[in-house]
Amino acid sequence: MLLIRYLWLLLCYAQYARGNLIDFYEELNNEFLYPQEKTEELPIELEPDRESGCLCRASENIRIIVCFGNYGCKKFPKVTLHSEILKVRTTVMEEIVRGDLDNLSHLQVLEIEANHQLKYIEPGVFRNLTNLRQLSISYNTLLHTINDKIFEGLVNLHNLTLVNNGFHNIMQLTPAFHTSLLPSLRALDISENIFESIPEDAFHPLRGTNLMKLDLCLCRLDFIHKNSFLPLRNLKELRIGENDLNSTMISNFLVKMKDDGINLIHLDLSGMGFRKQPPRNLMNIIATTTIRRLILAKNQFEYICDDTFPRMVNIELLDLRKVLVINIGPQAFNPHKFPNLKVLLLSGNNLPGMHKTPLSDQLLLLDLSDNKGSPTNPLYYDIDRDTFLQSKELKILNLSFNRIKAIFDYTFIGLENLQILRLENGTLYHIGDGSFKPLKRLQMLNLANNPLEANKNLTSTMFEGLNELKILILQNCGIKRFYDDDNIFEMMPNLTHLILRNNQMYYITAEILKPLKLLQVLDLSENLLISWWKPLFLASGVKPIKLYLTNNKISHFSMSMIYDISYLLENRGNQTVEINFMDNIFICDCSSMYQTHRWLQTNGTALLRQFFYKSNFQCSSPDVWEDKRVADYLSSIKTLHCLMYEKITNVMVLVWTAPSIVTIGLVIIIVTITYKYRMYIRYWLFLAKIAFGRNFKKTAPKPETKSYKYDAFVSYCNDDREFVMDMINQLESQPPYLKLCVYERDFEIGSFISESVMNSINESKYVILIISNSFAKSQWCRWETQLAEYHRIFLEDGTSYDPLVLIRVGEVQSKYLTTTLKYLLKTKIYHLWDESNQEEFWTRLRNILKKKV
Question: Where are its TM segments located (predicted)?
Answer without folding.
Answer: 651-675
